[in-house]
Specification:
- The protein has about 120 residues and is mainly beta.
- About 0% of the residues lie in helices and about 60% in strands.
- The protein is built from no helices and eleven strands.
- The strands form two sheets. Strands 2, 4, 5, 6, 9, 10 and 11 form a seven-stranded mixed sheet that branches. It has a four-stranded antiparallel sheet with strand order 1-3-8-7, with no helix packed on it.
Amino acid sequence: QVQLVESGGGLVQAGGSLRLSCAASGSTFLINAMGWYRQAPGKKRELVARISSSGSINYEDSVKGRFTISRDNAKNTVYLYMNSLKPEDTAVYYCNSEVGRGIVLDFWGQGTQVTVSS
């Protein structure tokens, strides 16, 4: 119903910056919210940032003040601007979309690797 493609991951030194992009296609008019999750080796997947169709935004505490999520509705694309990166930010980052008006369905991108070296 909704397809998500992430890009922008890579290797960066601590203190550096990256911008992740997630392009959505399909039934994009049904998307309630989009967000970024990450999963480090041996750890559970966790929410990093989320933006709803109404514009409300929330961040995981450890990225507040460093990461910014934004949305381009015309391009059906959500971005994650990551600044002041730390080694503990190293993970596979996944784009997520929440679709529906009653029961919400989740769709996921394939993930993009972010590695922060010290």
